[in-house]
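Below is one record:
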Amino acid sequence: MERKTYDLWVGLFVIAGFLALLFLGFQVGGYSEERSTKTYNVEARFENIGGLKMKAPVKSAGVLVGRVNDIHFDNKKFQAVVTLALDTRYQFPKDTTASILTSGLLGEVFIGFDAGGDEKNLVQGDNIKLTQSAVVLERLISQFMFGKAAEGTDKK
């Protein structure tokens, strides 16, 4: 009988550990947040979105104000079109700037909002006109390297 009791406790411990890992996975993935908040969708176009993914945060002044709802490619303008679901509690002027940023050198990619000064606010279906694409580290390094190489040939 002692062996069965021991096996039962080990089994319960394993199940509790699995549930804890599952809970942590949902916390890290951002799926534990309350989804009952009302949102309105706006679109932004970028030349390069870097590593931006679905459900990425949209932040203003470090505060989570929305999430990336959809990402698709415009075949005519050759741009990435990003649909943002913004919380209705937060209203932004029409001349708000959207930038693709990273937290830290290799951190998460998110969209940062810098509010403008327009008196009219963004509403459902609006387009954000002022955008700044992601900074691609490889492109910066190559520009630096080619710039240094060009400096070396100019001195001769």
